[in-house]
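User: Need the bound-state model for nicotinamide-adenine-dinucleotide:
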Amino acid sequence: MEKTKLINPLTKYYHGSYKWQPQEAPAVQAKMHPVPDCGEKSYQGFGRLKGRRALITGGDSGIGRAAAIAFAREGADVVINYLPSEDEDAEEVQELIAAEGQKAVLLAGDVGDEDFCQELVAKTVEELGGLDILCQAAGRQTANADITTLSTAQIEETYRVNVFGMMWLARAAVPHLKAGACIINTTSIQAFQPSEDLLDYAGTKAAIRAFTQGLSKQLAPKGIRVNAVAPGPIWTALQICGGQLKESLLTFGSDTPMKRAGQPVELAEIYVYLASDAASYVTGQIFGVTGGMFT
Ligand code: NAD
Ligand code: MG
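Assistant: Bound-state model below.
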């Protein structure tokens, strides 16, 4: 049998510094340097999600896009939610998924709007004929170094999108989920090791962690699993449109034990695992993919 080659994780992906490249939020990842690697060329599926129907928020770019590509290559049909200004990224994902022979439906809209969340789940069920996996990766992040200038508008918007939206979607989805279905949320290293300039964001990620664990207990008797992924610094569009202050962006990820930022593709397998039957005894868990920081 041919041996698998050992690959050094420190140098497996881009490990240099980053250029300052601000964009309006939400940023389009197609315009980033380097473009985040979401597994477009590398992710290989093994039929682990054949016939599953998934709703993925934030599926146009970054971590959600990596999950969307991986789910489709594992045989799932997907609905991708994102914001209308991100059409360019979303259409690329749709093309990639169509090339796998799977269905990819684009449903743009704001998850910070309660009615839209209800509608998004209803349309997903209509388009895919049901819902087996709710994968939530939508999120917003704006760095601010001084609490005396942290606006109420920013605090409200961060909580509205990251926490309220996530709860509204879970609430709308649960009536459609059958035993064997699952919810996967996206928290952060920030829920465990909050940065001094991400006060509102870190709070939302701690809320996601608590919600995930509480809901997992509520839904376990129905055979529905609820878990979350806690990424460390991952090179995505979120970081260049206000997510990091300039000094932190230039050296993004270099303060982790792995000394580099991660790429979205490095999270794909964990989302697939949590969505698949292989994780049948796994619920209420938070999975760190952090370059060595402790969650
Ligand atoms: P990203 O910008 O590529 O993805 C975030 C997506 O959120 C956007 O593409 C956008 O479609 C969506 N979004 C934002 N506001 C929305 C709204 N109001 N309605 C609907 N969709 C909205 O960045 P990413 O880093 O891949 O982010 C994915 C998730 O990972 C987020 O929840 C983020 O908080 C989390 N996360 C990221 C990092 C990191 O270092 N990149 C670390 C920890 C956690
Ligand atoms: Mg995006």
